Amino acid sequence: MAGGFVGSDKGKRAAQYEGRITRYFVLTVIVASLGGSLFGYDLGVSGGVTSMDDFLKEFFPKVLKRKNQHLHETDYCKYDNQLLTLFTSSLYFAALLSTFGASHLTRAKGRRASILFAATSFFVGAVVNAAAVNIAMLIIGRIFLGIGIGFGNQSVPLYLSEMAPARHRGAVNQLFQFTTCFSIVVANIINYFTAELHPWGWRLSLGLAVVPASLMFLGGLMVPETPNSLVEQGRLQEAEAVLKKIRGTDNIAAEFADLVEASEAAHAVKHPFRNLFKRKNRPQLIIGAFGIPAFQQLTGNNSILFYAPVIFQSLGFGSGASLYSSILTSGMLAIAPFVSMMLVDRVGRRAMFIEAGCQMIIAMSIVAGVLAAKFGHGQMLPRADGIVLVIMTCLFCLAYGWSWGPLGWLVPSEIFPLETRSAGQSIVVCVNMFFTAAIAQCFLAALCHLRYGIFILFVCLIIIMTLFIIFLLPETKRVPIEEMHFLWESHPIWKNVVLTEQERLERGQQQD
Fold first, then answer.
1. What's the burial of 244, exposed, middle or buried (CB within 10 Å: 0-12/13-18/19+)?
2. pLDDT tens digits for 93-126?
């Protein structure tokens, strides 16, 4: 089993790092973490809006007609409409494409520039969606929202990881997940009340996205640029001043020296995307850029978040009950990051991934079992079975909320070296958004055709991704970002990839 193996020469300067948690640092990361509210609000609001009759009557009357039927074949298929799912997935396709522009802006102008651009684009998208009179306007608005999410998800996790001291990086990065999940809860509560405002309640739900966008923009004006980015731009005096202020000490020589050395290495790389595919960066590419962001979506959690009201209505819950159930499940996601904050820098990333994987497998298996036995026969789901489904969904969301949700952003943001960090984070967001969009576009059709089998498929995928973590991910807790490469050189599997045969022989002789 692969664990957190670290070479003997690791930490040449890490032990000399000094600093404390200052009020300025706390204020900075809290304000910056508001970037998660864009992603979270949209995740929460989209599913609720697509289950509102007024919205469906305006744009998708065929879906509304099918929804009101109680035929055997519509049990799983009430909302199977590709144009309806395009309303959701178009945002994530836009986010996928925009992240490459975000990489250039983040590296050239800094993390704050991307944060401000994200907020502006999201604000425009919210206004267009609220004013929509046809499907074209809906899709255009979703594209602007997607661009905002692409830029925000590219820059905010990087910002948080770079501002945090190594020993607290995990907890600090969880703030992104917390604001994401809290905004999901807020969006579901808003949907619960706006569903009763006929016929324009859905417009209010979509239009209120201007609130998190405005907060993020104001926050982006307030926070400083990260020391890493300032060094990367050659603004050394500013970088040193910011580092002293956020660490609360003048003795930052060791950490600052690491930043400068990393920056020099970064400037030597003219093509960061091409550099990602070099042998020495293979672990980060496979684990951080492709594996974790893809698996984060393949857990099935975001499918549940997108369509929680839709799913619960399909399973026989009334309109109000379905929205209430989705508030409950999203509430579990808002609670879970606190567990993660307390444990991630103590027990480590690997343990939380593995425990949550087992919990999600059990919960999703029970959901599949209940549906296979009791649902899909043209009858209302019994109340007791409905309660079991809600409880298992809550347990599933809890596990996701303290593992793949926050750690899916934390681990990729901390393992890339500075020279490929912006490029790597762009691929992370791109892969994440591709699978988010694909699953959003396909989930309702898969639910219709595979029925309860879709949940069995998710169980199989979670088993695969848990094994992926067990064998390939070393423990990264409390390892400085600039010294992360020592993990790969000491890992029982990755050392055979990143080191040449001659280097492995030399390391073996040194150990002897």
1. middle
2. 898 889 888 888 988 888 999 999 999 999 999 9
* Single pTM value for the model: 0.77
Give exposure, 349-368, as e/b (b: 16+ Cβ within 10 Å): bbbbbbbbbebbbebbbbbb
CA 173, 176, 182 angle in degrees (round to 5)? 135
Query: What is the largest distance, in Å, between two alpha-carbon atoms of the chain?
Result: 76
Residue type, 189: I
- The rounded distance, in Å, linking the Cα atoms of 80 and 85 is 8
Find out whether 200 and 54 touch, Cβ atoms under 8 Å: yes
DSSP H or E segment with residue 95: helix 82-109
- Looking up tokens 């990051």 gives 337
CA 509 to chain centre: 42
Among 70, 54, 62, 6, CA closest to 206 = 54
pLDDT tens digits along 460-480: 999 999 999 999 999 998 888
- Chain-wide mean pLDDT for the chain? 83
Q: Is the peptide bond before 417 cis (omega within 30 degrees of 0)?
A: no
Residues of the chain with pLDDT under 50: 1-11, 71-74
User: In sequence order, what DSSP letters do the residues of 428-461 get, joined into one string?
Assistant: HHHHHHHHHHHHHHHHHHHHHHHTTHHHHHHHHH
